[in-house]
Amino acid sequence: MADANHFSGSSTSARDAAAEIAAKFSAAGFTAYFAGGCVRDELLNLSPTDYDIATSATTEQIRAIFPKARGVGESFGVILVHHKGRVVEVASFRADGRYVDGRRPQDIQMGDEITDANRRDFTINGIFMDPATGKLIDHVRGKQDLETKTLRAINDPDARLSEDRLRLLRAVRFAARFELTIEPKTMAAIRAHANELRGVSRERVGQELRRMIAHASRVKAIELIESLGLASSALLEIAPPTLLRRVRALQQVSLPSPILAHNAHEISTQLLATFLSAWLLDRESTLPWQERVSQWTSALVLSNKERDTLTSTLFLLTRVPEWPAFSKAQRKRTAANPSFHAALRVHATDAPELVQRILGDYAQLEIEGIAPTPLLCGDDLLAMGLRAGPEFRVILDAVYDAQLEGSIESKKAATDLARQLSRT
Ligand code: ATP
Ligand code: MG
């Protein structure tokens, strides 16, 4: 996620914008604090992704001060305030009502700062800061838990984790990302409610998992998901306990970065596919991998691009062991696949020597060109007077193979070969 202090085109930092908004509330006689993740991140010397404000002003009072503010999820009392090119979430102090569906409170009631701190999930996320003075207002002993690196549910862990089951995964994400030890009662509650993750919206489960894998703490996160018994309800797949051999070994594998990935989004899709492939192979199953990809795709609501990248990585993993027996054309076709490097990374956890050898071969092939523009295309075959049909593909593939092998180098040679093939 973007750093709140960059990329917005605003000359005011997100922090300053939020502090100025809070000052306007104070001037009008209300309490307004920085709340949640931004306070936690600042105490950890990290750059918050965004600044949230909690205030004693009601929704109407927020609107009276910022008439242009827009509501998001109005019933949850969150208002977006635009200020100096920044957008800050402002929410009234509240107490969540009864949870009925394991995800959202049925209603919310206005509350004070104490009820508001206490409706939050983990103590490290429940600290307020007065931006005017930098003073911490800590009703949940979050500061102490941050200092001792402890993840602890606020109040009764059992109730907190059953009322909103997404917290099961949030716990893992925070524990992994900030290297926290999960406090025993919180840990026991996570285990006790692990199966209830099944009922959580699959988009949200996928989103949490994506965020975990995007972060450097990804291996720790996957280990926690497995060790806390969350894997089968996250992936909707039963498997025996796994040592996560490949996932762990991936940390040690460093390969030249995939030059075929052109942008950050593509790189994060490759990274996701790399770790999901390793994880999928670590989890033993008798089902064919193609079926498991479909299963994981629905469990995590993977995008088409994510699913295709996972599929091609796993497909290549079935091919790569055959590399020594491949013809040059087969090697080039394999190496031209955008998931080639992802597959090599995963395969290096099984056969590091073979992968080193493949990388050597790859460097050679790259000099010749791995995916040159074909000498011949369908239009050329039509121009030769051939009739369009399924054999076009066969002929073009054979001609391209010859080109990749280096046995033909000119369009003339390609045309001759095509003519010869069309007669057989
Ligand atoms: P990050 O944005 O880095 O993932 P964050 O703590 O800011 O972490 P958000 O989802 O942005 O997480 O939520 C902001 C704050 O709202 C949290 O710090 C927490 O206090 C509260 N919060 C968010 N989601 C929940 C939840 N499911 N249950 C209880 N409190 C929550
Ligand atoms: Mg946040």
Characteristic key phrases:
424 residues; Hydrophobic Seed Protein; binds magnesium ion; alpha+beta; 11 strands; Beta Polymerase, domain 2; binds adenosine-5'-triphosphate; 21 helices
Q: Class by helix and strand content?
A: alpha+beta
Helix share, percent: 40-55%
**CATH class placement of the largest domain:** Alpha Beta
- Distinct compounds present: adenosine-5'-triphosphate, magnesium ion
The CATH superfamily of the largest domain is identified as: Beta Polymerase, domain 2
Strand ordering within the main sheet: 3-4-5-2-1-8-9
Label the overall shape: elongated
The count of strands amounts to 11
**Total domain count:** 4
How many DSSP H or I helices? Answer: 21
State the assembly state of the protein chains.
single chain
Mean pLDDT: 93
- Give the CATH topology of the largest domain: Beta Polymerase, domain 2
Query: C-alpha Rg, in Å?
Result: 28 Å
Strand fraction: 5-15%
Low-confidence blocks of residues: none
| Largest sheet features | 7 strands, mixed
- Level-2 CATH architecture of the largest domain: 2-Layer Sandwich
Give an overview of the whole structure:
This protein has 424 residues and is an alpha+beta fold. The protein folds into four domains: 1-142, 2-Layer Sandwich (Beta Polymerase, domain 2); 149-235, Hydrophobic Seed Protein (Orthogonal Bundle), CATH 1.10.110; 274-368, no CATH class; 378-423, no CATH class. It is built from 21 helices and eleven strands. It has helices spanning 14-27, 37-43, 59-65, 113-118, 142-147, 157-163, 167-177, 184-193, 202-214, 218-227, 231-235, 245-250, 264-282, 289-300, 304-319, 328-335, 340-347, 352-368, 378-383, 391-405, 411-423, and strands spanning 32-35, 52-55, 70-72, 78-83, 86-92, 94-96, 108-110, 128-130, 135-137, 150-151, 181-182. Helix 6 (157-163) runs parallel beside helix 8 and helix 20 (391-405) crosses helix 21 (411-423). It starts with 13 loop residues before the first helix and ends with a helix. The model has no long low-confidence stretch (mean pLDDT 93). Magnesium ion (MG) is lined by residues 37, 49-50.
